[in-house]
Amino acid sequence: MFYNVDRRFIIGIVVVLFVLSLLQSGPEYIMEILLTLPCVILCIDVHEFSHALAADKLGDKTPRSEGRLTLNPLKHIDPVGLVLLTFARIGWGKPVHVNVRNCNSNRSYGECEAIIAFAGPLSNFIFAFVLSIVLVIVTNFAFFFTNPVGNIIYRLISYTFLTNVGLGVFNLIPIPPLDGEKIFRNMLPQKGQEFLLNYGSYFQVLFMILWFTGYLGAITVPAVEFLASKLLAVSAFIIGFFIH
User: Fold this and answer.
1) Where are the domains of the chain?
2) Which of 28, 48, 66, 194 is catalytic?
3) 2, 74, 170, 171: which has the fewest Cβ within 10 Å?
């Protein structure tokens, strides 16, 4: 993602964010960053691996040949995207290269591209749902709130849960180069698809503007909070059903 944007510009943003974070940091903030980092790595890892797996299942062996059909985070992490996701809550992993013309399914190239794109956010939502069940269960044990080790475990689960929801929602925004654009574009008629492909770079600029002005957060944060609360409510219902 964002490889059409000068990486020196992105790195400059990362440096500024890092310095500002250090200036305002206290022990609790540093602890939060240390706990957030492995959660972010895990979520990106699952997301990118799912893109690779979907492409492989559809017949495109490009991700396999590039070593992306693995859960090894070193294969999927983009350093700049990782830092931004950790500090700014908006970031990305290393793009999985695919060639839908290699797909040997009965689906069209557009359908294959949309399926591969949707696999990433879907994996995050499935992961988040599993973690929501875990969260509902552990909240019934005092150990996770009174014991320092238990509290760290609880926070790790919570951060991973919220990061998965956030990454899934964020990537469904229909603006290039996000997964949502590929899904949305392939739902349009041919002229609509050509329009998005021809003016994709302008939409990337729009994305950056929405990000810097805070409008992107105004859109995604309520959606993340809503979905997270619903997942926890559904999980509580399921757990309650089996317990009672």
Assistant:
1) 7-243
2) 48
3) 74
